[in-house]
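Let's practice the habit of predicting before peeking. Look at the sequence and jot down your guess about where helices and strands might fall. Then scroll down.
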Amino acid sequence: MPDFAVVGKRIVNIRSGPKAVGQAVYTDDMKFPNMLYAAVLRSPFPHARILSIDTSRAEALPGVKGVVTGKNVPKIRVGALPTQSDRTVMAIDKVRHVGEAVAAVAAIDDEIAEEALGLIRVEYEALPAVFDPEEAIKPGAPRVHDEVADNVSFKFIKSYGDVEKGFRESDYVRQDTFRTAPIPHAPMEPHGVISQWNTDGTLTVWIDIQMPFLIQRAFARVFNLPEDRVRIIKTETGGGFGGKGEFLAHYYASTYFAKLTGKPVKAIMTREEVFVNTSQRHPVNITLKTGVKKDGALVSQHVRYLADGGAYMSTGPLALAIAYYMGMLPYVLPNYSYEGIRAYTNKTNSGPMQGHAVPQLRWAIESQLDQIAEEIGIDPLVIRRKNAVYPGYKHPVHVYGSCGFKETIDEVEKSLAWSDRKGKLPAGHGIGVACSSFVSGIKMLSHFGGSIVIQINSDAGVNILSGAADIGQGTDTVIGQIVAEVLGVTMDSIRVIAADTAITPMDQGTFSSGVTLRVGNAAIIAAREVKKQLLEVVAPNLETSPDQLEFRGGKIFVRGRPEKSISFFQAVRIYRYADKSMPIVGKGNYVPDVADVATMIREGGTHSPAYSFMCQGAEVKVDRETGDVKVLKLITGHDCGRVINPINVEGQLDGAVSKGVGMAFFEDQPHKDGSYLNNNFLDFLMPTSLDHPDEIPLKSIETDEPNGPFGAKESGEGNLIGVSPAIANAIYDAVGVRINDLPITPDKVKKALDSKKKP
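Done guessing? Here is the structure:
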């Protein structure tokens, strides 16, 4: 293993200090002179025609500075995908889900704004609504959008091999149906924004967002401005998980009223609004048919993936495409066909969330794989190892650089003492496994990658300008470590200025586990450019050639002769006194040499430069009397390439496990006529510390990814994918019942156990 000075070391997240002592500034912490407050009025109906809106009483309320309705907003369509946008910033003629924005007010304080909302009178004509995706696509169902007769917002059908022939040649074929629940992102910090128009006609927006440069485009488009007239400053972000990326009614209201009044305007969503009016994980009905040989070799698979998309498109086309491309991983599968359907319903729209459509399908595949293994008499680990992809495997779609997948299975097998304990534990105890893979560094658009600018002034401090959005995953720290490694300086010398569209280079945003690979590679390029400039002036001073010099420990020295050295600070002084222009600047841009994700909808091709691999092991205890399940241990075997920062990787693992536990046992949004019944943190169940296992060990498999910075690739997002199926498989091992619809609640387990007892 290479001898790194900074990479691979346990360095505390450079953003942790301010959070720990309460100095981190979130959007709602910010205050400006004469600031106004905006609030949004929302529909109580899941589907209704807007007949009239009377705002006169609200406008007359003292302290109210403005009112706007859907009739006054631009007719521009907004959404996650510009070519697929189907939503206006507020409803104009018709509302399509409970909570859709119909009007907004601005006032001198929050209380007056809320009072004003209560004075607006809206006359609705209720329309028939549809809430189930299977019902929505049936002939005669109520139309969510008048122009879409079958309520199919998008369909994606793709295959390779000969699936029907594969089924005929299979020794065993099994078909099952699985269901997953709608899951909101539920960030601790509600979505917030402050907008201010400047005297030169430019717009500045402070916002907790995952994709500053993409949201800059949205603001520019909605308000008919050139992009360079909009400045997005990302504030500290208290959780995102995929849910802080789309243009929302609050953002429009804040900016509209700021322009109307000439004052800064803050708009912070309430907790209820976050639940009912931001996107959620797609709930999906999955029909899975799989054929295998007697020895467990996978032969053929067909997937029907029906996603409940809610009222609007969001990232629907990408969700369906990603499920196809990632659903086939991480196994050798000669024949594969996929029918993805996304239905409009009169509910909150579904969109991107950690794993973006992959956890739902892998839940089904990994659950069914255990059922197949049992039917043909093969151990669940054996069937996975037999079908596992491997380095050099020629996949029909993907191209692997590094692959430590089988090693992850080995680590979980060892940690669970699988052969000694599988099927041999005390009554009510069980173990299970599940496997997954995930992309690392996908390309959003052909011209979008990662960019870094490094500036070094006369004090030798290293300033890194990055457009990447650190939303808690430790991006700034990892970038700092990479630059410090190349330049041979300590982390004390590093300063990261990030995610301000006016001063940092363009970046596509934080999603799909791509920041470390994209921006990390850009950081290496920029740091090497700085290094080259310094070498040109330092080499003569040390009486050697540039290729004989090394940077380490804050010094530059002759290779093999560490005593012949100068400090990094001295090197910068030599550069300066050589009458070179200051600051020293290095620029790096990295765009993966793969197809961009927009093309995956219409054509094939490799869309990711690297892939992580993981095996999840679970140990559970089931109470047969109550159906309650206690997770005793969750083990992750994880190939994430070379680990840049073990603390970050462990933190991402813990977060992913928490998400997976929530998906497995708790998280759901039941509704009555389109109104969610648990839109607050009292009623919406999430795992607490008491619901997590005492042990969450990480068994890291270090591979050297050729496309990753120092060999690194994805860590964190992919880890959650295997948690719920591993738990489900462990429950079956414990008590012999299988639940095919998430979440796995005690009442479902108890009902299944009671049914099993009946003759």
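How did you do? The first helix runs from residue 16 to 20.
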